[in-house]
Design brief:
Strand content: under 5%
CATH class: Mainly Alpha
Number of helices: 4
Largest sheet: none
Distance between the termini: 27 Å
CATH topology: 434 Repressor (Amino-terminal Domain)
Shape: globular
Length: about 60
């Protein structure tokens, strides 16, 4: 997954669960999340698994 795809996935995820909530679930600061979304720094590939788990959790019925 390239940098732009990660940025798009992060933006969509933040819209779904909220930026602060997403940052907390990823165990990073909101500032770091914003940097990843802007492309100022790149989300490590290892965080993709955690993001996938978060999205799986919120996609379950009644999870939100």
């Amino acid at each position: 997954m390239n940098k732009t795809e990660k940025q798009d996935l992060l933006r969509r995820s933040a819209e779904l669960v909220g930026k602060l909530n997403l940052a907390q679930r990823l165990r990073i600061s909101e500032r770091q999340l914003e940097a990843w979304m802007r492309g100022d720094s790149v989300m490590p590939d290892g965080q993709l698994l955690r993001l996938a788990e978060i999205l799986a959790d919120v996609s379950r019925p009644g999870a939100r």
